[in-house]
Amino acid sequence: MTIRWFLLASMLGCCAQAQAVATLIAPVNGYTLNTAGELQRFEALLIDEGKVVATGSREALLKQAPDATVHDGKGRTLMPGLIDAHGHVMGLGWALSEVDLVGTTTLDEGLARVRDWAKAHPDAAWVSGRGWNQVIWKLGRFPKAAELDRAVSDRPVWLSRVDGHAGWANSLALKQAGIDANTPDPVGGRIERGPDGQATGVLVDAAMALVESHIPAASEEQSRAALAAALKEMARVGLTSVHDAGIDAKTYALYRQEAEAGRLSARIYAMIGGVGEDFDQIAAHGPVLGVGKDHLTVRSVKLYADGALGSRGAAMLEPYSDDPGNRGLLFNDTQSLTAMLVKALSKGFQVGVHAIGDAGNRQVLDAFAAAYKQVEKGPELRNRIEHAQIVNLDDIPRFVPLQLTASMQPTHATSDMNMAEDRVGPKRILGGYAWQRFLQQHTPLAAGSDFPVESPNPFFGLHAAVTRQDHENHPDGGWYPAQRLSLVQALHAFTLGAAYAAHQEATLGSLEAGKWADFIVVDHDIFADPPEKLWNTQVLETWVGGERVFARDAAKP
Questions:
Q1: Is residue 168 part of a domain?
Q2: Residue 59 is part of a domain; what is its CATH number?
Q3: Which contacts qualify for 256-261: CB closer than 8 Å, 24 or more apart?
């Protein structure tokens, strides 16, 4: 009797599985890359149980699945979901709820935004935000605490620079942090000071922690709201997956809970921030793979070599061209960095190291070479240099034998072109933002944005990669145009290249049979229209695992 019921139950289960209804999206103007990186076109997409079954013509796919539910594609352009290989998910969420100084063109405009936000949020214990850029403000110097006091003086204020590698405090924030003329610069950081030795208001890199450690921690409810806001924005701009560059144990717990509950509307490939206590806790049982139908994976570690170019914290082999007494800051000595690499690699974790300056990049290359002598399987983990922004021309070929991926952000080039050559001069800039140099030596290239440092919109990145111009088409012909990418190369970097950098090219990055059905529908044919239209592309729909997570006009099917 038991056997008979078991067989009957098995038959019913098989029937139910066989009757699962597939979805056909047609007609579409479909594009995808294949495994060889070649552009393919199709008229219809067949998906089932969250994965791609096939692409092709409507007629052929209906023959393959005659009972499929047809979703009207209206002939619109459909392409793989875009992957940001370097972003900060929670950073984006917080940025959406704090003072936003991005786009301000003067100090006074920035102060006005701070003042307005403070008035609108009288109960906020701290006024926090980000996005200032003294270069765009044409100050010729860093802003000062006394200037920030003009906007808000009754509460501490802390504002991160656009690159996240410097912070601007008002006088009350400096006082609460106990920073005075006797406070030493921490290793890897710098307190900007006046002639009297007193802090003037800006703290660079590791010195930022002197203030940030005094900001009240966010509640679980606030963190959950920030994550939801970030996911909503990512879906809106067409990101179906993000490599989150540096999380702690608290953030991991939140991500895991949301992934297991099915509430992540994008896939997160998370990098653990450092190899300290958070790493020990998260990595206790090795890499975390594919939680919640592949919505959360943690198999990477994020380390830092140096700071950023805009704040002159990036470590340079020779002094800055526009600041002859300054070579920037290395965060660690090479021996310490090597030990961090060995610890992570030995546990089976890939490592991505932030390196902006040519000295920072050289140190990372040296450290990987030394670590590989201790961890034989280290190169197999597809380790990465995050940014690889200014690399000595002699060091670029070293990426190849070390099997490193160049994880780069195209919009950094167009955002930095107003100051980058001033910082490093006409010779060193030849190794800067050098996308084609890496591709020509077959170094894997993964593209991202570093949001919220830049906009999370991947079409801004595609536009910058293809044109090397801003949104007003400046400069004519592009900035150092020899390093431009073709649109196919750029799309690869934001899809299959990024997927490869996360060991996920077998399941993500293209609309090939067996892969997750992560795709977007956009408002024009990016391959037929001129490149200058790329940045203004509007995402109409975003789908993750065969489920629509965003529709620009939600009233339409």
A1: yes
A2: 2.30.40.10
A3: 256/288, 256/291, 256/296, 258/224, 258/227, 258/292, 259/291, 259/292, 259/295, 259/296, 260/291, 260/292, 261/292
H helices, E strands: number in the chain: 19, 23
Q: Report pLDDT for 3.
A: 42
- Residue 207 in domain: yes
Q: List phi, psi (to 5°) of 199.
A: -65, 135
> What is the Cβ-side half-sphere exposure of residue 42, based on CA atoms within 13 angstroms?
27
Structure tokens of 155?
């509460």
Angstrom distance (rounded) from CA 117 to CA 121: 6
The domain tally of the chain equals 2
d(CA 125, CA 158): 11
Bridge partners, 302 (sequence order): 273, 352
In terms of DSSP bridges, do strands 296-304 and 350-355 run parallel, antiparallel, or are they unpaired?
Answer: parallel
Q: What range does the domain containing 192 cover?
A: 96-212
Can you give the three-state secondary structure of 426-492, one letter per residue?
Answer: HHHHHHECCHHHHHHCCCCEEECCCCCCCCCCHHHHHHHHHHCCCCCCCCCCCCCHHHCCCHHHHHH
Q: What is the pLDDT of residue 518?
A: 98
Residue type, 554: A
Whether 75 and 130 share a structural domain: no
d(CA 349, CA 272): 9
Indicate if the alpha-carbon torsion angle 143, 149, 152, 158 is positive or negative.
positive
306 touches 330 (CB < 8 A): yes
Contacts of 394 (CB under 8 A, 6+ apart): none
pLDDT digits (tens, 9 = 90+) for 114-125: 999 999 999 999
pLDDT of residue 20: 64
pTM beyond 0.85, yes or no: yes
Which residues, 6 or more positions from 338, have their beta carbon under 8 angstroms from its beta carbon?
Answer: 367, 370, 371
In this structure, are 205 and 113 located in the same domain?
yes
CA atoms of 251 and 369, how far apart (whole Å):
31
Residues of the chain with pLDDT under 50: 1-19, 555-557
In this prediction, residue 11 carries a pLDDT of: 44
Q: Residue 458 is encoded by which pair of tokens?
A: 């991947």
**To 5 degrees, how large is the angle CA 131–CA 133–CA 134?**
150
pLDDT at 164: 86
Distance CA(46)–CA(62), nearest Å, equals: 9
367 near 338, Cβ under 8 Å? Answer: yes
Helix, strand, coil percentages for the chain (3-state, nearest 5): 35, 25, 40
